[in-house]
Each structure stands twice: as structure tokens, then as C-alpha cells.
Design a protein that fits this description.
heterodimer, A: alpha+beta, Immunoglobulin-like, 3 domains, six-stranded antiparallel beta sheet, five-stranded mixed beta sheet, 6 helices, 11 strands, rod-shaped, B: alpha+beta, Rossmann fold, seven-stranded mixed beta sheet, five-stranded antiparallel beta sheet, 7 helices, 33% strand, Dolichyl-diphosphooligosaccharide--protein glycosyltransferase subunit Swp1 (chain A), Ribophorin_II_C (chain A), Swp1 (chain A), signal (chain A)
Chain lengths: 286, 465
């Protein structure tokens, strides 16, 4: 009894060891890169313990060939799953390539550029290749990184086009770019020219005075026809004032009737006032 | 005592029963109506949420999705059926029509039963590919239930769903306990096309693969799909927000994988399944109980100082400052609540004429939000281009129903009296003073012409000039 008690755990332990020991692996792993136009390719031995330190280069016309023998507990056996999984280290995209496995466990796979998804051809980092071997039953499956592949594309051929599929999500913001506001020259320049223009007025008046301009006939004209002269000159000033109001805040239809009234006053008073001016001319005063 | 308690619980459940936003008439298609006993908990959950279940077999003559051109049911569940086709009442064409008429479909598959041709064609129409010969089985030698599938490895233990992108709300796995798993027994995987309407809910683990158990029993030579390319639970949401979910394993919904079911991971750890809650959420999402958005109101107005504050005017002027507010609610099982935009996502407003001139993120507006409605608003200056514009909110996200709102307004150009006055523009000063000088000069000239006496003694010289 005592014996069985001490023996049973030992048996269990043994069984456990046996089960743990039953695991998938591979032997005789060879990796070769064969160029299409002959030439010496690369040939490397691979094993599941340590991945190759240097990445293997795969050119656009090369073929990568991988040969290995899948083993269960050291003996060659055919697993159900024997894949080489390539992984793009930037995006995490993975593509499995199943190996062709014989009854003995001997498995091969050939990979060239046309087998690879287009994203891999555009990858910047070397692809990480893992070997996955697993099958039904209790044997422990294997998933181990073995080598890295650097994809070399032909520089003469344009790189394949890859367009990311549409996915719903927020889009980049757009802020409308407004047209630039109209700009004025520096105020100093405007003021200078405005003053120059204003200065023309005194210049005009002074030159008139120098030429002998005067208002000496004013009393005579007012005396002859006071109402029409006051109205005529007043209407000319009023017309300018109406234009000033139009400039500041009146609208066109406010202005028009006033212009008609003022204009009529100009015409009616003008005939009398200008008649008086004519009479002065005929009298030889002008 | 216990049955009385369960009766009370049941009555309570019925009294607070939720109803989907699009109706509660649910049709279940089964091979044999007696099969439903396997799914009693799942179907009981559906009934307690207020669905009115009808069971039919594909052979039934009374089976019809439409009656006089109107939908007869709001939702359909397909359980695996052994028949090769589904008869004249469930052709792919009718199923597409059903989606177009806002009906929702939950399709479940099982590796033991070949998928009916009608469903395969229907799914192909949506760009969902099933394995060749309508049969497939997903296995994973790294990650299976050692208790029930020690040898065949066909009961996958999947981690609870996580969102791939940080801007998507986790609808399906949000409430999952830390170390629970979804048991996925004897399921079929699908390969999804590149359409933006398709979203995988659960992808296969990286070492899982699909094979044909009839032809590839010895070794997998021709791979249908493997790893993350294989979608185990897939969703499709049409532009009209009608939903379809393809559940790779119908057995996942069976009572034996619910609640207390325990599975053993490869490392020997026993864990509880998340299947019941997952089934509830999957069906709730499909039947429009989760992730349904509603626009309560939209308001826009002039946001200038001293302007009249009229809501939703038909016309604005270029360069007006305008504010826009939209109010959204989200439905969860039985009630509307305020919709909170997931972190890293944003509701965007486009102000567009043919193409967007502005695309701006709408900010949460607390002043206009209530408990069951969240308001989002933006304030911006209209572009300096006149024409007919749209305020457009096009919020389409995976797992949320589509929101597409368009409000048209005219944008007029500046009226002549809305520009700055000429005296306010420094460049105009010389010209304005020129006018002033001309006016004064003209009046002075008139006075001079009317009233000036000829200068004395210069008469002769002036005439000669």
C-alpha cells in the first residue's frame, strides 16, 4: 500500500514527462534562394532553436525554397498543419504558406514574388518567417521564428500599386482658406496725396485772385433779381448737398425725388438769374 | 419555491421587456422545430427581451418573409439546416430584398452541416466568402478546449472581443470578466472582402486555420484562410443600417456552452465561458437593440453679435459666423441614452457645396444636453464663396447605425451697403478729397462766373489770349 502510494505520483510524473516530451519539431531544415538565371544562390541550414541572424534576400526573379522534415518526438511524421507564416513587422499582416508534406514528414515549399501579397512587396522592414507545425492529438505544436526575408524589388519595374481599402472613421479636418482681405497702401502715402489734392484748391483760388477774380457784381445782381439769384445759387449748393447725403446714408430712391425738386428749382430760377447775367453782358458790364 | 422565484423573475423580465428599435417579430428557421430545445436558453433570452418568436422549417409552405409587399418579420435567424437549398421562399434575391427593407438577419453555420446554397449565394452577394464545397472546420492546435476536444482541437477558446481600432466602441466584449473565453465549437470561418460595410467581430487566433474535413483529413495542402484573415464572427451593416451577422458556430449558442460551462485551456487552467453574454450581445446588435443612433434635433443659427437669433434660417451671408448643434441618442436594450463619442473619434460637420469647404469636429455641448440626449456643436465662419451649401453630418462607424443628415442653406454674397465705407479705407482718401475739391471748386466757379466783375485795365490783354 505504502509502495503504491509513493509509486503512483512517480508514475503520473513519468506520464507527464512522456506527454510533455511528445512535441512537434523539425530536422534537416534547409533554406535556399535560387535565382532564375542560374547563378549561385544562398543556402543555409535552419533549426528551431535559433533563427538566422542575417536576413535572406529575395529578389524579384528568385525563388525561395524551404525543405524540412517534420518530426514528432524526434521521429519523422506527417503533421496536419505545416505552415511558413510570413509577417510584415510594421503592420502585423500575416500570410501563411502551407508546406507540401509527405508521409515521412518531409516537407517543401517554394515562395517567389508572385505568391506574396502586394503589401509584402512594399514592406520596408524584413519579413519575419515562422514555422508552424501542429497536428491533432496531444503532441505539443511548434511555432518558432526561423529567419527573416528582405524583399528586393526590381528597380526597373514600377512598384505595384496598393490602395488601402476604405474604412469608416474620422477624416482629416478641413479649414477653409479665406481669400486675403484687400489691402491699402500705408496711410502716410494716402494722407500725403490727399493733402496734395486739397492743396490744389487754395492754389486755384490764389491764381484766380491774382488774375483779378472778384464778386463785385453781387450787390447789383441781388438788387436786380434777388429771389431768382438766391434760389439759383442755393439750388446748385443744395444739389451738391443732396449728393453728399447720397454718399453718406441716403438710398437712390430717397435721392431721386429730391433731385427732381432741386433740379426743377434750378431750371425755373436759372432762366431768370441767367437772363439777368445776360442783361449785364449786353450792358457791356462783363 | 425555486420555480416560483423563477416565475416571478420571468414575469418581471416580461414586464420590463425591451423591444428592438425596429420591431419584435422574429422568425427562426430550423431544420426540425424540435431542435430548438438545444438553444432553449438563447431563445428564452430573446423571448424575455420582448421578441415574438416564430419557428419555421425551410420546407414549410406558409413560410414567407413578405406579405403583400410588406415585411412579415423584422428579424430572421438561420440555424443550420441540412437541406441543400432553402426553397423558393428564401432565395438569395428575397433575402437581399429583406435587407433592403430594413430587415435584420442572423446566420449561424456549423461545420457538421453544409451551408445551404441559398445562404452561400446571399453571403457572396455581401462579399463574404465561405470555404469551398460549403464545408469547413476551424481548428487551432495551440488554443483549444482540452476537456472536450483533446484530440480533434475543434473547440476553439477565443479571447473576448477587443476593438482593433481605438476609436471604436467595444460593444461585444465590454462587460466580459477578465479571464473568460468564448468557446467556439466546430465552427466555420469566412473570408471577408474589402468592403467598408463588413467588419469582423471575432477573428481567428493567429495559428488557427480552416480545412475541409472530408478532403483534407490527412494534411492541409490548399489553404482557404488562416490566422487573422479568417473571420469567425462577421458583421455587415448596409447603408440603410440593416444588419447581418454571420456566426461561424451555431453550437456556440447551445445551452451546454452557456453559463456554468467550464472549459480547460491548453495550459490546464479552467475558465468560464462568456458565451451567454456574447450571444446576447450578438443578437442584440443584429436585431437593433445595441449601437442604434437617433438624431433628436438639428439647429443652426447666426452667431454674430446683435444679429436676430432665428433658428435654422434658409439664408446666410458669406463670412457670417454660424453655430450648428446636433443632438444624438443611443439605444441600449430598452432605453435611449445620451450618445458619447468614443475616445479618439469625432463627429464631424461638413459645410459643403459639391466638396466640403469646412470639415470640423463637433464638440460636446453640455448646455444643450440632457440625460438621454447629447448635443454636439461647432461654431465657424462661413466660407467666402456664395452658393447653395449643405450642413452635412455623415457619421458612419463600424457597429453603429448610420447617421447621414443634410440641411441645405443659401449663402449670399455681400450686399453693396455691407462693405466698409470708402472713408474707412485709407487708400480712398486722395480720391475722396479729389471729389471734395471738385465740389468746392465747382461752387466757387459758379459764384465767380455769376458775380465777377471784369478786372479793371486788363480787358484788352485778356481778350487777346
Amino acid at each position: 500500500m505504502r509502495f503504491t502510494q509513493s509509486f503512483a505520483p512517480a508514475l503520473l510524473l513519468l506520464a507527464g514527462v512522456a506527454q510533455a516530451a511528445s512535441s512537434w519539431g523539425f530536422d534537416d531544415g534547409t533554406l535556399s534562394v535560387v535565382a532564375k538565371k542560374g547563378g549561385a544562390g544562398v543556402k543555409e541550414k535552419i533549426n528551431s532553436k535559433s533563427p538566422l541572424s542575417k536576413p535572406v534576400t529575395l529578389g524579384s526573379t528568385d525563388t525561395l525554397k524551404l525543405i524540412l522534415t517534420a518530426t514528432d518526438n524526434g521521429k519523422g511524421k506527417r503533421p496536419h498543419q505545416a505552415f511558413v507564416v510570413l509577417k510584415d513587422q510594421d503592420t502585423g499582416l500575416e500570410a501563411p504558406f502551407p508546406l507540401t508534406v509527405k508521409e515521412s514528414g518531409k516537407a517543401t515549399v517554394q515562395i517567389s514574388h508572385k505568391d506574396l501579397p502586394v503589401q509584402f512587396l512594399l514592406a520596408t522592414e524584413p519579413l519575419k518567417a515562422s514555422i508552424v507545425i501542429g497536428s491533432f492529438g496531444s503532441a505539443k505544436p511548434l511555432d518558432t521564428p526561423v529567419f527573416n526575408i528582405k524583399i528586393e524589388t526590381d528597380s526597373a519595374v514600377p512598384p505595384p500599386a496598393y490602395e488601402k481599402p476604405v474604412r469608416y472613421g474620422k477624416k482629416a479636418e478641413i479649414h477653409h482658406i479665406f481669400r486675403a482681405d484687400p489691402k491699402s497702401p500705408p496711410a502716410v502715402i494716402s494722407i500725403f496725396f490727399a493733402l496734395a489734392v486739397v492743396a490744389a484748391l487754395p492754389a486755384l483760388f490764389i491764381s484766380w485772385l491774382l488774375l483779378g477774380a472778384n464778386l463785385n457784381h453781387l450787390p447789383k445782381a441781388i438788387g436786380a433779381s434777388p429771389v431768382s439769384h438766391a434760389t439759383f445759387f442755393g439750388s446748385i449748393v443744395a444739389m451738391e448737398f443732396v449728393f453728399f447725403l447720397y454718399f453718406t446714408n441716403w438710398t437712390l430712391f430717397q435721392v431721386l425725388p429730391v433731385i427732381i425738386v432741386v433740379g426743377a428749382a434750378t431750371v425755373l430760377s436759372g432762366s431768370k438769374a441767367l437772363g439777368e447775367v445776360q442783361s449785364r453782358r449786353l450792358a457791356g458790364d462783363r | 419555491m425555486r420555480s416560483l422565484l423563477s416565475l416571478i423573475v420571468f414575469l418581471f423580465a416580461v414586464s420590463v421587456s425591451a423591444v428592438s428599435t425596429t420591431g419584435n417579430r422574429l422568425l427562426a428557421i430550423l431544420d426540425d422545430v424540435a431542435d430548438k430545445d438545444n438553444y432553449s436558453k438563447f431563445l428564452g433570452d430573446l423571448a424575455s427581451r420582448g421578441f415574438d418568436l416564430t419557428f419555421e422549417t425551410p420546407k414549410s409552405e406558409s413560410l414567407a418573409l413578405f406579405h403583400l409587399g410588406e415585411r412579415k418579420y423584422d428579424h430572421v435567424i438561420f440555424f443550420p439546416t441540412k437541406t441543400k437549398g432553402l426553397g423558393p421562399n428564401l432565395t438569395p434575391n428575397i433575402l437581399v430584398q429583406f435587407l433592403n427593407a430594413n430587415g435584420n438577419v442572423l446566420v449561424t453555420l456549423s461545420s457538421g452541416v453544409a451551408a445551404p446554397n441559398s445562404l452561400v449565394s446571399f453571403l457572396a452577394e455581401l462579399d463574404i466568402q465561405l470555404p469551398a464545397d460549403r464545408t469547413g472546420l476551424v481548428v487551432d492546435h495551440f488554443n483549444y478546449d482540452t476537456a472536450s476536444a483533446a484530440d480533434l482541437h475543434d473547440v476553439l477558446l477565443l479571447p473576448t472581443p477587443k476593438t482593433v481600432r481605438s476609436d471604436i466602441k467595444n460593444i461585444f466584449g465590454a462587460a466580459a470578466p477578465a479571464d473568460s473565453v468564448i468557446a467556439f465549437p466546430r465552427g466555420v470561418g469566412a473570408a471577408l472582402g474589402a468592403s467598408e460595410l463588413l467588419t469582423p467581430i471575432v477573428r481567428a487566433p493567429r495559428n488557427a486555420y480552416s480545412y475541409n474535413p472530408k478532403e483534407q483529413a490527412q494534411v492541409v495542402d490548399d489553404l482557404f484562410a488562416a490566422g487573422e484573415q479568417l473571420s469567425l464572427v462577421s458583421s455587415f451593416q448596409a447603408l440603410n443600417s440593416a444588419r447581418l451577422v454571420l456566426l461561424g458556430s451555431a453550437e456556440l449558442l447551445q445551452d451546454k456552452w452557456f453559463d456554468e460551462a467550464e472549459v480547460t485551456k491548453v495550459d490546464g487552467k479552467k475558465v468560464k465561458t462568456y458565451n451567454r453574454e456574447f450571444a446576447k450581445r450578438i443578437s442584440a446588435w443584429t436585431f437593433q437593440e445595441l449601437g442604434v443612433l437617433r438624431v433628436n434635433w438639428i439647429e443652426h443659427h447666426l452667431s454674430e453679435e446683435g444679429a436676430v437669433n432665428v433658428s435654422n434660417p434658409k439664408i446666410y451671408r458669406i463670412k457670417n459666423k454660424v453655430s450648428y448643434t446636433i443632438s444624438l441618442s443611443e439605444y441600449t436594450y430598452d432605453s435611449w441614452s445620451a450618445f458619447n463619442v468614443p475616445a479618439n473619434d469625432a463627429i464631424q460637420l461638413e459645410f459643403s457645396m459639391l466638396s466640403p469647404f469646412h470639415r470640423l469636429a463637433l464638440e460636446f455641448d453640455k448646455a444643450h444636453s440632457t440625460k438621454d440626449a447629447a448635443a454636439y456643436s461647432a461654431e465657424f465662419v462661413l466660407p467666402d464663396q456664395h452658393g447653395i451649401f449643405n450642413f452635412k453630418v455623415n457619421y458612419k462607424r463600424p457597429f453603429l447605425s448610420n447617421v447621414e443628415e443634410k440641411n441645405t442653406v443659401s449663402v449670399r454674397h455681400m450686399a453693396h451697403n455691407e462693405w466698409p465705407r470708402s472713408f474707412a479705407i485709407s487708400g480712398a482718401w486722395p480720391w475722396i478729397s479729389g471729389i471734395g475739391v471738385t465740389v468746392v471748386g465747382w461752387v466757387a466757379f459758379c459764384a465767380l462766373w455769376l458775380y465777377s466783375a471784369p478786372p479793371k485795365g486788363k480787358k484788352e490783354s485778356k481778350k487777346t489770349q
